[in-house]
Structures are given as C-alpha cells and as structure tokens.
Please model this.
Amino acid sequence: MLLSLALLAMTSPIALACGPFLPEAVFSFTHEPDLPLKRFADGELGILQKGFERPYLFAAYRILNKTPLTVEEKNTLASFWQARFLNDNSSVDVPEKAAKDWQAARAKVAGASSIEELKLYRSVDMTFDNLYETYLNCPADAFISASKTLAERIQTYGKDSPVVKDWLKAQDLVFCHCSTPNYDDNKKVFAPEPPFPQPAPAGANALTKADRSYQRAAAHFYAQNFDEARKEFLDIASDAQSPYRQLAPYLAARCDIRKASLKKSPDIELLAQAKRELLKIANDPSTAAVIRESAHDLVDYLDAQIIPLERLSTLAKNLVAPSNNSKEFLKNISDFSAILDQLLGDDTPIRKISSIPESTRTDLIDWIICVQSAADTTKEHALEKWQSKVTYDHTHSELWLIPCLIFAKGKDSSGDQLIKAASSVSASSPAYLTARYNLIRLLIEQEKVDAARVELNKVLTAAKMPPSSRCLLMTEKSQVANNFDEYWQDVLQVTTAITYLDAPGGIQDDLKKLDKSNDYTHGPACFT
Model:
C-alpha cells in the first residue's frame, strides 16, 4: 500500500454533498481532458485550459517539454486519473470491499454473530459541531490484515476452537471503534464508547496474549486514545516473543501522526518527533524490509507537512525524468499534486502564488503556476521565460508559449508577437490546438474578424480533435458569424457528455465505459 497517498486520504475531512442531482450538458470539460484519458497521455492534449487539475498539467508539461511519458507512467497515470475524474477506485484496495471480504471471512467461524454493516469513518473529534467532519478511520489494509490473521488462526487452531472464537470477539470490538458513537439528538450527548478487548487470560498461550495486546492497542488507536495506543504499541515492541514486535514501533509513530493531523492546525513538533522515530526504523537493517519501506514512505509524507516546499521541489525534480518504477512514480505524482493543492488551493486563476516563492520553484512548478495564474507579474514572468526560450532554446519554446497565450489579451503590447508565434505552431505539435484557439481569440479581441474566420475554417477542417476542443472552437466561430443563419448553425453543438457534475464523484458511471474506448465519444446535439 502506498502509505503517503493513503494517509493523505485518511487525515483529510470528507465533505458529502446532498441531492437531488440533475443531469447537465457538458460542452467542454474545464478541469480535465476528454475521454478516453489515455489519448491525453499519448500526447493528444487538445486545448489546454487554466482550470485543468495539476496531474493533467504535469503530463502536458512532460509532453510539451519533449520528454514523453513512459509506458509505465502512462498506465500509472491512467489509474490515478480514473480515481480522480471517474471516481473509479477499481485498481486500488477499496475500504468498503475489504470490509465486506472481512465479513465473509469471519462468517466461517462457527457461531459467529452476524454484522449488518461496518462503518469506517469517524468524526474528527467528539463534538457536535464537528460531527459531520469525518475521516477514513479504518482503511482497507486493516480488514485485509484481520482476514489474513483470522485465516492463520483457523489453520492453527480450527474454526471451532475457543481460541479462534475469542480472537474474533476481540477483533469485533476493535472494529466497533472505527466509527463515531451514536449521537442522541434528544439528550444532546454521544453514546458511550464501545468496550475494549480485555487482556488475554493468565493461562493463555503466548500467541493469544500477543494477539490480544495488539488488538487492544489497535482499538485504542481507532477510538482516538492515541497516547494509550502509543504506550501499548511500545510495550509490544519490548516483548521479544511477540510476532508484532517489529511492527509496533512503526504503529506507535502512526499514533503521533494521527494525533497531530487531526488538530485544526497540524502539530508540526509532534510530526517531527514521529519522523525521527520512523527514520530509525527505516535505517535499521534488522527490521523487516516491508516495514522499513513503509516507514520510508511515511517520512516522505511527513516531509510534505513539515517542509512542504523542500519536498515539493524534490518531487518536481524526480518527476521531470522518465520513470519505469510504477510504484515510486504513483507516490511521487500523488504527493506532488497534494502539496500543490495544499499550498495553492483549488481556485483558478490561483491567488495564493506567494505561498511558493519564485526562488524555490523548479521549471515544472513554475510552468503550472503560470498556466493557472492571471496575475500581471506572473504573465510578465511567463513572457520573459518564453522569450528566453525562443532566443536560446527554440525547440522548447512552445512549452512556455502556452501560459503566455492563455492569459494574453488582444490589446497587450505582446499581442501581435504572440499571434505570430501561435500561427507558426505546426499542426503536428501537441500545442497546436491550444495555440490556434488562443490565436483566434486574440484576433477576435483585436477585431480582426475576417482573419479569425479564416483561421477557424482551417483548424475545423483539419484532423479529428477532442469534442471539448471542437466545442470551444465552435463557440469562437459563432462570434464571427456573418449573419443569423451562420450563427444559428454554429450555436447548435454536439455535447461532450451528459453528466451529473454536482454529484459526489462528479460524473456518472456511464462515462467509465467511454474511458475504455479507443476513440473520442460525445453526447447528443444541444444549444450552447
């Protein structure tokens, strides 16, 4: 499991929208490319927009910077994009599925009670004001691990064994703490916390005692008793006979991380303490490799909280070089996107530019900021970088031409220069449609309608393009119509999709099927 990605999800509050959700015609996607997404990864960028999410802009940067994505990177990005855009987590361990698998596993124990539902999310704290601010408390690996341990205990003792039945009762008490205790609206109080597993009987064997100690510590962790859970994990670490001895220090550090992360403002000092403990684990050759790797991943996650600018710069430098390591690449792009979103926010044009000082930006970070920021200083900066590329490195000038074009105005002093540069972009270039769209927009703004009409006819009769790009160009065409009949023809457009944009997940399941196709697809004709 990629812990850096999992922990970001684990510590972030979940906001659930409310219906009803009505269908909406989409003429051009403003936050993501057209489906199928793999065509974007292959270099068919269409018309890039400032509102595109940063993982898509990263791919565009690599492609425009003449460093195409490797096969491994394309496949990894496809899964990552599907999870974001299509709300499709089929390629990862979904907590709800793991919980159902656990219920099926526990049903094999003779006399096991039935459980109708396992609630996996817990309120950030036990106050009414924060009752609906929740996080994933029991992730998939918790249930996967429990299912694996149960299978091992059944194999050792038998499914009818009192030892297995007692283990299951204790594990049920562990998962009782995954969710917030019920709130009584009449009495205005929360129900008491469920009971915790009791210590193993004095006469129990060593494995049963070790299991029960681990279950008690886990239950306290899920119940947000982080100090108690940390103490119990450290006691386990000192037990030379416990099979959990090596894992326990790692889990003790996670107690500090969870405690620090659930505060309104992360406790950086506590996170730094956890980092020091994890570094000891990661650098201890006597510790199992899988635990050392997980500790290393958590250190990277903590660096994103403690020293986000330094971590962001490191990730950006790693990401501009082609990678054949899918796991490392996924961790890098996940963390890179999360830190950028944390520092810059979700608004476009972005307004929190100062949160990433210019002196700490790599070329990749700088380009994404310039694509998404309309600030005058950023526009001037992008123009300077593009002009320097034209002078010293002409083969890469199209990369920096894009942000210049996106925010340019027809009456800008650089308008004519940019129009000339955009008109020289080859039809074979991945920047072609973005350049032509903005070229036409600038001509219209300069009231050069005839020239804009000529350029539109050229590009619209060219090769096949993504539906969103065609709709954006057709909107421009309606602005240069000679008469009402021409306008009427252009205003009737083919939709990119019919979707439920306000619903949780953002997009209907039918589009998941479209993403698996090899060609662009669209919805019915509709008025813009």
Q: What stands out?
A: Confidence is low (pLDDT under 50) at residues 1-19, 500-509, 524-528.
